[in-house]
Amino acid sequence: MTFELHFCNIGLMVIPITKAIFPVAGLGTRFLPATKASPKEMLPLVDKPLIQYVVEEAIASGIEEIIIVTGRGKRAIEDHFDISYELEDILRQKGNGKLLAEVQKISNMLDICYVRQKEPYGLGHAILCARNLVKKEPFAVLLGDDVIDADIPALKQMLEIYHTYNAPVVAIQEVDRSQVSYYGIIKANLVGERVYRVSDMVEKPPVEEAPSNLAIIGRYLLTPDIMELLGKTRPGAGKEIQLTDALRELTKIRPVYAYQFHGTRYDAGDKFGFLKATVEFALKNKEFGKDFRQYLKTLKL
Fold it and tell me: Where are the beta strands (DSSP E) in the chain?
């Protein structure tokens, strides 16, 4: 093993995280047939596509460069964050400055580059596809259908933990015991306020084998040595290269921490989670939230 060369710990220089990987090559089968020809990440949550909420979280947390790992049928994501000359020209001619500013804001957010995951070999493989772009730097990973509503962006909260411990950090939340088989689950000891030192983790365990009910959700801060481990990871659950399996090996080499963030997480890649997010984000909307609340009160539930 040669990982010692990459090892960072408290007392050593903390390398800032400025790059983030967005793996969006998944098939979105939980939303079929809506996602047959359109990416699930582009499903509209009130007035913005899901992925835009997560990109905005990354920007608000200080991320400067985003790497989007795409796949077949994901062209709409690239188009959304690109300049649309025709649309901008039409809005300009109509004198609709407000909408023009909104459209231009999207394409001017920050630098985005794209890499293709040609086959759906899992989250770990998707991250590995971006290896040449992150190089030897630490990086963030954000899942584009995990939307987190928080006063302080969830990723920004995690970055504070990363800077404190100078080590990889995964986001976690408590889930009902009956739901543990849908997540990566950690075994860990509490070492600070909402901070855990991870000793082990397992991907989608049976309920009776889960080491806890602390589930890993779609935010990660990772060090570059994870790439070497991913390259050696054999396909696991679902015959995919699981990031959880590589993280499990990483805990044997360096400290890995988990953080139970402040905020509400919506699994918007799930139909029920998407509906909950839609209702709650609509209620908070400054333009029509009040009217929507009054409308809901008229329904005979």
Answer: 19-23, 44-45, 48-49, 65-70, 111-116, 139-142, 146-149, 169-174, 184-192, 195-203, 214-222, 257-260, 264-267
Task: Report the alpha-carbon distance of residue 293 to residue 301 in Å, rounded.
Answer: 14
Q: Where are the domains of the chain?
A: 15-298
Number of other CB atoms surrounding residue 86 within 10 Å: 8
pLDDT tens-digit series, residues 29-63: 888 888 888 889 999 999 999 999 999 999 999 99
- C-beta of residue 189 within 8 angstroms of C-beta of residue 196: yes
Does domain 15-298 correspond to CATH entry 3.90.550.10?
yes
Give the tens place of pLDDT for each residue, 230-286. 999 888 766 788 899 999 999 999 999 999 999 999 999 889 999 999 999 999 999
Residue in this structure with the two tokens 């905005």, named with its chain if needed: 56
